[in-house]
């Protein structure tokens, strides 16, 4: 049997040696390079596969420690949410006590201050041991190599990348050594120690020595004793096995004493100091880790924060997958300034709950969008943003009901594939009016409008059918006569707008709605607008489901002279390096300036603010004009049988949409008693908005009047 200086070679060991020859060569090259200046090492001397071992990835040059991102209100100072999945306290080197550094070096890498990233003695010892064992049981990882592994793990965005960063293979170890050699040319020993101690996991939700000192002892690191420093450093090897809070305090003390003994062995402690430290108890003072699990749940502005996070995850500039984008938000340390106006938001929440308090079976919610920017200033609804819905029970308006019924995370204000929205009623008449104006029909286009009108649109049998043709009615039998766009819009005359749609083609109204950002989330609506828009007559009166966010953004284009800006929840983000990333909506001239100004003039009639270029009769929402101390316009929206009710209104610098419906049971009609409550809420919201920012005026149209 062949012999070596460490003993005879067995058959198993011989096979292992032959299998490890290529990797051992790479080991040898890297170890050899560890004795040389790194500048002579580049050039691809050591490779694993096709990768240059010493090619340093960009993220390792100045690897960022994961940090939570902070979301501020539009004022740039009010924190409305944080996003992060780790409790971390960033420290500078001079904030880390010498006892922690000494304990770490003594236990993990006693030659740390002598080697240049790889410890040759440790590597050779590990190589011999692993060849003898036929495996990879001994790792020889220096602190620099461990730090490399941390960075690769923390910057990973998929489970496979996380596993690859810490897999127990010699291939990975060789790459790790190459990165460590290169890293030590870029960073000082103190920088490596600081970054390592700011990122390593200590258990119980604590990342970094700053968090660990707080979680285990309720202290800042500078106040740690030698024994406490040793206990914390001992956790690094296996936080779960040595956990003194939820695991074995005896195991933690044994591990701590091992660290103290290592410190004595390398002479960072005297024997007497070591004995004193070992005699000390664990003296724990456990504290909760202040982990931030998700911004929306912990925020008073949950619905807005939830929308922001969904928006962020759709921005391709932040990565090519949802996982990458979320990782950047939760670990990138961004300082993000949102568009949320907290003063207006709080006023809107009060206005909403004044009409319908928390716990009502009916959801009443409102969104405010800034014209010309698309900035979302308000998302208020009489619901709590919470995933604690275990006790929702049946709907009830009983004020004594104490369950979790008002809690939800459904995007009631912005919608998704599961929440398509609510029928918007007559507020959709705006799109027909805009389309007619685009076709050159002026505001004084007069049409005789009966109480009930049999249209050209075939709908089959139904309540609104006359011989298979759609035949809608007006809200009142007294609404009969000649109407134009001012009076028809002000009084919301159904039969006027159905005839207007017949003159221009309802597909043109649908096209305008799409240009103004209306999304068709319900499959039935999508099928109709896609396959047969020219026959979709009921679209005119708002049978389509939509959301307050869509409607506020669409109407915001009117005071912006026809410029539509897709809604956006953020203004800018500042990175850890201090670079600022501005966010701007992709605004577009959706309708012409004169068309928009003409539509605004007609929209002044429902609020009884009064048109500039024509004559209004009476309006369906005079309370809005009475409440707002400035120019205001808008439109009510009521559906058949009062299943939902809406109001969408705007001043020169804000557009607000509000709805009321039962989102859990659409068959539960809001009834006549709730009609007008969205308009009441918007009246209060726009009044508050005008008090905060009362600027601008509506420009009267010069064309499309007569």
UniProtKB/TrEMBL annotation:
Would you tell me the Gene Ontology cellular component terms?
outer membrane-bounded periplasmic space
Cite the InterPro entries for this sequence.
Answer: Beta-lactam/transpept-like, Glyco_trans_51, Glycosyltr_51/Transpeptidase, Lysozyme-like_dom_sf, PBP_transglycosylase, PCN-bd_Tpept
Q: Which SUPFAM superfamilies match?
A: beta-lactamase/transpeptidase-like, Lysozyme-like
Q: Per UniProt, which keywords does this protein have? A: Carboxypeptidase, Cell shape, Cell wall biogenesis/degradation, Glycosyltransferase, Hydrolase, Multifunctional enzyme, Peptidoglycan synthesis, Protease, Transferase
Q: What protein does this entry describe?
A: Penicillin-binding protein
- Please report which protein family the annotation says this sequence is part of: In the N-terminal section; belongs to the glycosyltransferase 51 family.
| Record field: catalytic activity | Preferential cleavage: (Ac)2-L-Lys-D-Ala-|-D-Ala. Also transpeptidation of peptidyl-alanyl moieties that are N-acyl substituents of D-alanine; [GlcNAc-(1->4)-Mur2Ac(oyl-L-Ala-gamma-D-Glu-L-Lys-D-Ala-D-Ala)](n)-di-trans,octa-cis-undecaprenyl diphosphate + beta-D-GlcNAc-(1->4)-Mur2Ac(oyl-L-Ala-gamma-D-Glu-L-Lys-D-Ala-D-Ala)-di-trans,octa-cis-undecaprenyl diphosphate = [GlcNAc-(1->4)-Mur2Ac(oyl-L-Ala-gamma-D-Glu-L-Lys-D-Ala-D-Ala)](n+1)-di-trans,octa-cis-undecaprenyl diphosphate + di-trans,octa-cis-undecaprenyl diphosphate + H(+)
Gene3D superfamilies (UniProt xref): Biosynthetic peptidoglycan transglycosylase-like, DD-peptidase/beta-lactamase superfamily
Which intervals of the chain are annotated as region Disordered?
A: 384-409
Keyword hit for Glycosyltransferase: yes
User: For the Penicillin-binding protein transpeptidase domain, which residue ranges apply?
Assistant: 367-684
The record lists the organism as Glycomyces algeriensis
Named from the GO MF annotations, one term is: peptidoglycan glycosyltransferase activity
GO biological processes: cell wall organization; peptidoglycan biosynthetic process; proteolysis; regulation of cell shape
Residue span, Glycosyl transferase family domain? 79-263
